[in-house]
Amino acid sequence: MVAVILFLAITSAFHLHFMLLAGDWDFWTDWKDRQYWVTLTPIVAITFPAALHYVFWEKFRLPFGATFAIVCLIFGEWMNRYFGFHVWSYFPFSEIWPATMIPGAIVLDVVLLLTGNFFLTAVIGGIGFALLFYPANWPMLAAYHLPMEVMNSVVSVADYIGYTFTRTATPEYLRFIERGTLRTFGGHSAWVASFFAGFVCMLMYFAWWYLGMLLTKVVTVPNKFKQLMGLKKDPRPSSEQLAV
Amino acid sequence: MGIMQAEVDQPARQVDGGASRPSARADFSTGAIAPIRTTALGVIGILVLMIAYRIYQQVFAWSAGLDSTDPAFDTYWMGLLQWQLPAIVASWAGLWSYLFVTRDRHLDKLEPREELKRYFRLIGFIFLYAFAVYWAASFFAEQDAAWHQTVVRDTSFTPSHIVLFYGTMPFYVLFGVGSLLYAMTRLPRFAEQLSIPFVLAVAGPFMILPNLGYNEWGHAFWMMEEFFSAPLHWGFVVLGWSVLALGGLLVQIVQHMTELFRRCDA
Fold this sequence. Notes:
The structure holds 2 protein chains of 2 kinds. By secondary structure, chain A is mostly helical. Helices cover 64% and strands 5% of the residues of chain A. Chain A has 10 helices and 3 strands; from the N terminus they run ααααααββαααβα. In chain A, strands 1-2 form a two-stranded antiparallel ribbon. The longest helix of chain A has 28 residues, at 188-215. The termini of chain A are far apart. By secondary structure, chain B is an all-alpha fold. Chain B is elongated and about 70 Å long. Chain B has helices at 2-17, 24-30, 36-64, 71-101, 112-150, 159-186, 188-192, 196-221, 234-241, 246-265; one strand at residues 193-195. The interface between A and B is large, with 65 and 76 residues.
């Protein structure tokens, strides 16, 4: 029962965190053609794995905090891929699929297991988590990266799918991601973006490991209403009484 | 999890080995001490309600939920809102009042075995809380993104929001505050000292409810289109992080129960 509580709670919190920071854009095939996706997703996704590493490893010596967190996230996203995006809003499956981060999470866990050291896990595992993100998704993404010509312009298949299935309430979406050189067909800049994500992932790992420590500390304060709760008043004299 | 199971098994083995001691093992192993039936009924109740919400959305969102000025919208969606809000407030008042009024007024005389049973009930209560939070924060929350990518929000009370913001979110507050009240009114350790991880794990998700006001105000003034990673939504994110404090609560409950198992075994 405790395991299911953790599964549900982490699914809820991690999914909420991820959908509102990485954005629901992680679902869109055409968004996956941009460098933002490669950069932003691992940085936002390493947070809960790092926090759970502290809880699971330091408190219970369990070395699967990262994989557990990512499985929770992907479960929440797949429930929405089917019931939310497809069944309710009628988006085609080919347009909406959440990325996977499981290989990176396994590496993060394995580094922790082998080194038992959170610093090395941050440095080695953090960059591994980010670098593995792109190739882990390649088998699902490759077909959508093929270039095609539409109205005398070269676009990717992903682009064209996004163009034909208009998201009517998202003009901001188009303004935001089309600027600069963020659109590529997966050239060298994707790997540059991955390395940058790896650098930030190291820092995020430190920050979230520490946040995990802070939030799971067992801290209590005296309940001033304990008599109301059925306990007797503390027979010891208070500091005010001692002062008199 | 593993440790907790080990803690459960440990005294059972010891009790089994001592012929002169009362057979506590039977109680531990048959589930007599754990509120399995009550928790299962709670899970089924929540599941039925959530599935009913989802079916209602499927049937009436496209047919009556696209235009807030449509009379059908008033019937099917504002009608649901007007029915569910009083029901949820009544359930808050009912459950929380019940927990407080029926509190144990002699917590200092509580037997260890009874206290242990109450810890299992508390875990069942937290289970229902986590289950209700899942539907709100994961299932219906991202459905909101899917819906508003396609359907423009012309009111704060959309078919997605009425279920997510004014249905499922207040609903999990019922169990969050309820579990905290249960612990404080029935378990001496939680009545003596306020548990900060417990308060965080309840207060963070609870504060998402008032944050909805900011969210709706921001959407009304600044942006009507859907943009899920907008800073406007980051209040939800930070408040959601507090769920991690359940880890601290878990450690605390394990510590308390370990001590109780020892006392039961003594």
